[in-house]
Amino acid sequence: MARIGVFLCYCGTNIGGVVNIPRVAEAAKAMPEVVFVQDNKYTCSEPGQLEIRNAIVDNSLDRVVIGCCSPRMHEKTYRKAVESAGLNPYLLEIANLREHCSWVHGDDKERATSKAIELVKMAVAKVSRHESLFPKEVPVTKRALVIGGGVAGIQAALDIANSGYEVVLVEKQPTIGGRMSQLDKTFPTLDCSACILTPKMVDVAQHPNIRLITCAQVSKIKGFVGNFEIDILRRAKKVDETICTGCGVCMTKCLVRTPSEFDLGMRDRSAIYIPFPQAIPLKAVIDTEHCGHFQYLKARQEGKDVPDCNICQQTCPAEAVRYEEEDEIITERFGAIVVATGFKTFDHSAYGEFGSGRYPDVISSLQLERLMSASGPTSGEILRPSDKTHPKTVVFVSCVGSRDDNKGRSYCSKICCMYMAKQSIMLKEHDPDVQSYIFYIDIRAGGKDFDEFAQRAQDEYGVLYLRGRISKIVQDGKKLIVYGEDSLLGHPVQIPADMVVLATGVEPNDGAPELAQILNVSYDTHNFFVEAHPKLRPVETQTDGIFLAGCAVGPRDIPESVAHGSAAAVKVTALFSRDTLTTDPMVSTIDQMRCVGCLACAEVCPFNAIEPQVLRDGRVVASVNESLCKGCGLCVATCRSGCANLKGFTLQQLLAEVNSLWR
Amino acid sequence: MPGAYAYYPGCTQESSAKEYGESTKLVCEELGIELHEIDGWTCCGASSAHTTNHLLSVALPTRDLQAAQEMDMPVAVICAMCYSRLKYASHELRDPKTLALVNEVIEKDFQNTTQVLHLLEILDKERIPVRKSLKRLKVVCYYGCILARPKKVTQFDDEENPQIMDRLVSNLGATSIDWGFKTECCGASLTLSRRDLVRDLSHRVLVAAKQAGADCIVVACPMCHSNLDMQQEGIAQQHGDQADMPIIYFTQLVGLSLGLSTEQLMFDRHFVDPRPMLREKGVI
Amino acid sequence: MTTTTVTPSVSREFLLEVQQQSQQNILRCYQCGKCSAGCPLAYAMDLSPRRVMRAVQLGLADYVLGCTSIWICVSCETCSVRCPREIDIARVMESLRMISIDKGFSPAEKEVETFHRVFLDVIEKRGRAFETELVASYSMGGLGTLKTSIANISLLPGMISKGKMALAPPNASGVDEVKKIFAKVREIEQRKTSGGSE
User: E-assigned strands of A225-287?
Assistant: First the structure.
């Protein structure tokens, strides 16, 4: 016979105002195996916890039921209280009398009280079948993997490395720097983006604790928090980066010209290339899709005769070109992962009414950044693409691929209002004769000095804001006619412009959902990664040991991305401050005597925690990796022979709860 | 591959757009496309029904679709307005409640499985044996407002920059010029009631075509044709500039390339006579 | 200008009526104005389409049912296909026209409303649109204004000489069925307005 103590909490008037606690206490006294019942105004308070502890000791209780708020709120608190009395902390069951009862049945006190009695009755029946559970300790590999080398990933990597831990920074592109490296100036202070970013990029390259792997992505994950085993696919650069000096001779010799990704097609690059002069690492890489040598190899396979080219190999002073280099898989162990895969801008070809990219002088905001950048295709001179003249009338269009259900993008991209203000100010700085018009729906300028900045664009720089979304752009000779409505005036307007800048929105980088699936973390309908809690756990995921930073989670500006990167780094270093990790014992078990080895459980397990195991007699059965198991119970529901069970929520315990209702 | 279609001519083929109907018949004959006119077809209700009564606007075209269902052939339409109304009816009738209600109104058992195609969609799949190349002809294709939209109803082509007619005229050897007014509205049914507005809107289209350097505008809708062609004199009066822009049905253009005569294609019925331009370009 | 009094009960009633009739959630409109920016006829309207939507949101029935915009709209659907909130604005315009007729509003664009009525009369009578009769009865029946009538009649000789006007009425064998459809639709409308549930 168990000796069960029942503690009932009024939670002020939260529970007590609806549920008749004395009546519940009276009923509890009559429940089987209950030897002690007590109520309290606030069970979770210091004295409340002490009372529980004393009651356990004084009455030799060996099981505890607490009727209070949700276990999400205070289960940990009460486990500690129970443990302090010398009991195993898992010999506790909580009956949720608040969220499941008083808060939802405030209009019917009588029935709320009956329900509270039944909830307590179920908890008593369940706890009587509880067993002591013991968490396990596992060691922590104190190395971090940061995926994505934009400003958020750079910040996270530097902060972790500066705390004394090893970091591997994996970047998909040939260089780190991300979107920020493509920007000219930053709002609202107009700092030069490259000037503040490149020193950080150099820090990454030179940091003794950081190893940088570019042209690479994560392809496979095994293990669990503290002990991940990761496969990193490193695509062949065809250049030995240990030898390449970044001198750039190959780039001048290469015969191929193809649009530069970094300059968004506004300038050409060679097939062997370094994306931009401040790239880190400053090493060349061969784009095999366009390279003459690889086209020759491909043609030869197809039996076609194409002249070979190996001019880069012949002319490289360091003899670093390696055509034969193959992709490789690098397998490494890590204790924690930071996902900072960043964003790309919306492809405005989805807007047929704006020309779908057919009009050369309708450009994206990021293309304008390149035009304004001193290291850009026009060396910072603003020339419109069609005829290389200076545009005098420039129209900005906000919310292109933002706040538009029609294009599947319902969300606000957050940064566009500010960068439009910045770009219109910079246009005026470049050329005082420029008149900018900004079509906006709302000016979203929440942030330190943001609104003042947007105002300054109007009253100091004479940028004219028109409230309204435009509907169409038509090419009319050398002009672009922009059709809009000034919704404050209530009239249709049209503006003959020299250049139109589309403020394209923020969306997750390509491959984000695929990576989320590999890592087994959630992503939303727009492919942004999902935080464990939007307010209180903004850098965690639902998977322990995997953290988030930057625009992979949603649109944000540079300071927020940096702060987010640092926040993720703190979570990683906190994890690394311990030598071992405690695992939750409420996990699945398999009764291997009865298991038939169908492995249906392994198929449904979302955490890959179940693997086949061959017993000595050759029988194949399922086996649970307790470190990976999250206790979701899918295997229990799936198992046809009823041999999977969840500790703390066994079939027997659940059945006892249900049965108790009929007594 | 030429097929057989239940042909829905539309009311204007009997009067103002006779040349559209006649050129359609001739071209389809040449190409071996069988058009079987729907027996006893009636008006789709065009813009008036859906302007004033929703149920009526679905019931009227459904009567014709039902007649086509009995012929067990896809419906071929040439008028953009009719096409839009027939497509819209099929779209609305996907809702079983609406289908039941409309069947009650027309006292028939329509299943809503009949496919509706514009002649442009049918010709898009045909190989046209060009006998007379139109290679010196530069045209703009004018789709009008409702042929391509809304896409979720018509499934016709890109809403903002349709290509199907441009592809057709290119196949005939003519040059189709890209312009921004492909799907702008001509003023449609306001012809009789607010002619001033029709003339404003059609004027914009004519000016844009002229600026694009087109010899003529190619259309696929009788309403567009009558607003742009018949009104051109009035547009000149209202706006003070003479466009002299021939407006040609795409079927007439196909007819020319197949070697049909201008008499057969009824060019004499146009208010702006296209023949001098066609002669100058060596087409006739 | 006047001060508009906005009250919850009145505004709600009209809004719901328009939403019911059009099957569109008008409260989704966030007033960006893309409809009005692309509307080919917005310049000729007294309220731009965006303002029509706003007036419906506020429930200003008299304001919106008496405007010219709902009659000038030709249902070209430009607004509907581009609306970032995916509202079928053309359908809302259509619903407003119907509600306006139902409530006995005198159409702000009388000729437009007359044209549609005459058009449907011809179809009911003939089964097909007989353009000659349409022009004649619209222009000569004193239904349009004198100015538009004269303008329309002046077109006739040219049209007849170009063979654009058929002189004999169409001969549609389906005309009886069309007459029945009109009658049945009227009967169903009657059922609805007399308060009978479907």
Answer: 227-234, 258-259, 268-269, 272-273, 285-286
